[in-house]
Amino acid sequence: MALMRATQSEILVKIHRADGSTLDVSDLLVQYSDNHPVNGIPIFSLALPLRYGKAPFVETIRTGDIVEVAFLAQPDPNRGARYYTAMVGVIRELGQQQAMTQNSLKQLTVISGQHLAGWLGNETINYYLAAVMRGRLETLLGAEGVYRQFLSGVLRAGGLDEAAHLFLQQIAFEVIGIKRPQGDISKLLGYRLKSLAGRGAFYATWGNYQGTAWGILDAYSDKPLHELYATTLPLEEFKQLDGYKNTPVTWGEDKAVPLLMLRPSPFPYALPGGGGTLGDWPRLPLHDLTQEYLLLESSEDHTADYSDKEVYTAFFVNAAALSVSETFAKTYSPPVVSIPKYQRYGYRPLTWQTVLWQNTAKESAPEFFRSLNWRIAGQWNRMDEYAGANFSIRLAPWIKPGSRVRYYNQLGDHQSKMEGYVESVAHTFVPGGVRKTALRIIRALPVATYQTPAFFAWGLSEIKPLKDLLLPVANVQLEETRDRSRIDPSP
């Protein structure tokens, strides 16, 4: 039995078992770590003593049990600390570890697992087989059956978000059928689904697809137009999100919601004709990393870099429903080219296929695909001018992947401020030892740049293939050193 506490623990770790009981192992914890990426499922690991009382831990808990982890943290030094839920996950591996040291034998229980969304990545879905096995073929094919709803969904121009909503509610949650004392999977795992406007034939396609629920969603999430990842948000922040939502039971002091997130990529983009817009970027949560109280007492290494690995110079969308030649398709939706980058790097195409179609009957399909081309072009333009960075700061569980951060520039003028996108968050906690959060930041630019929409559309133009316009030959020249903190709209 865990000891009673006289003071608040810096970390709370609870294991919710299949019999409905809960073990609080906060005071027994040896080590904890996790990693929360964008476009993926978070993972965690922890170490405990070999035994819980007289019994080995491996006989007390089992794979499939739920782990809840919260950190006591203080984002504002002028306000009191409170608990932030960092992980609600399911145990996937459970074992014992021992190591000989110079003076003793160290024996531990080691546990690892995934965010609750890991259920979707491990259970295979085949709805037709499941329906037959459960004697529900009549329900499946009947006048009010799910298949009929799929077809009617296509006819009523359902979007990606609506399709994902029906898929999770009527197929994934139902077929997986995981039930626990805390509730079944639809009561434990939430979601927020929002996609770009546009309809597509998702319903019938997903209904005949075999794979994991996560695999199906990932295959049809229309990347790079959208992001799909799992995270955990406080209930108040979750309530502010729009789109299709499933609100599950909440966890911890902050009433946290473990959820699946589908949303349009939130980066600034270009509009047809060359204009720019910041899009959803200003609405992302913003965290200030320039505060001294966030710095670690000991000196930590950091890295910062520029890279041209993700530089693309020509952007072209292929409409999945168009079974025509590439020449016709490119005439149908002309490619967008970044001429200045093309001159420097040559031909680096970013092509993708989408099943999205026009928003309304009033908008022609070519104009719709043209807008998607410009959107992607603006989001992937000038990638060699974005900075990346890795930071270690004091434990900051309130920072989530998919948010924004501001920090002092680590490349050049250290007094200037940069703003970037949090690609991943990783926490490490050792009682009496390391307590830190590691951040991977991408798409970082000077703060002023993220207030200048024209930056993202600079150098972009459409190419008309039928006019036989020849693209310029790449010519890499020695460039003069220039201040990256200033906006230069000229090539």
What is the strand and helix layout of this fold?
Blueprint: E1 11-16, E2 22-24, E3 31-37, E4 43-49, E5 51-52, E6 55-56, E7 66-73, E8 82-100, E9 105-115, H1 118-122, E10 124-125, H2 127-133, H3 137-141, H4 146-155, H5 160-176, E11 179-180, E12 183-184, H6 185-188, E13 190-193, H7 202-207, E14 211-212, H8 213-219, E15 226-234, H9 235-239, E16 244-246, E17 256-264, E18 269-270, E19 276-277, E20 286-288, E21 303-306, E22 314-319, H10 326-332, E23 336-338, H11 339-345, E24 349-354, H12 365-379, E25 387-394, E26 404-408, E27 417-429, E28 435-446, H13 454-457, E29 460-462
Oligomer: single chain
Mean pLDDT: 84
Radius of gyration: 25 Å
Low-confidence stretches: 1-7, 150-157, 478-491
Distance between the termini: 68 Å
Helical content stands at 10-25%
Number of helices: 13
How many beta-strand segments? 29
Which structural class do you get from the secondary structure elements?
Answer: alpha+beta
Approximate shape: globular
Estimate the strand proportion: 25-35%
- Sheet having the most strands: 13 strands, mixed
